[in-house]
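Hi all, long-time lurker, first post. I run a small reading group and we've been trying to get comfortable going from sequence to structure in the token notation. Rather than ask abstract questions, I figured I'd post a concrete chain and ask someone more experienced to write out its structure so we can walk through it together at our next meeting. Sequence below, copied exactly:
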Amino acid sequence: MPAATVAAHLRPNPDPSTDTPPPPPPARARRHLDLADGLLAACGIDDLAALAARCAAARQAQCLPVGRWSPSGLLPAIQLAVHHRGWPPHAVPAALLAVAGDPATRSPMRLAEAGPWWEPATTTPSTNPPDLAAYEERLDAVDGLRVTLQARARQALSAEGVPLTRASVVRRACALLDERLDE
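-- Answer (accepted) --
Happy to help. Here is the structure in token form:
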């Protein structure tokens, strides 16, 4: 028997039809896409591909790799930051660009972590508290109390639902120090 005839007898479906369209995505996948669209709208992101391109450009300007900065890489980072960590959606585009331009960043998933990218970009001079270094110096001056004050500050901020950033913890620790001094 010739080899071609043997192969034809061994294949379960020797003449598959390739003209059929692919099946529609499962309902779960459609629901996932709808949720992603809602998240992006809440973040003020009209075009995720354009934002990904801006992030890649920020990385290229720093001579950093851009492989993970595609739309499919940014979406999980945004979901983690907003849905699971509670960061404000309106701040996501600016925070994402700041994370992308940071040389210490290796992945967009860093967006979900506390960092200076979540601090408000502009504050008025009348409401701008002393800089973070001044708070740090005050806490350094109280020796072993710093650890206790910062632990209490983290507990209080978590209970209030405030995101834990270096600045928020240090500011709250100084406020707790002031309360302790007033007693």
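A couple of things your group might point at:
Confidence is low (pLDDT under 50) at residues 122-129.
The radius of gyration is 26 Å.
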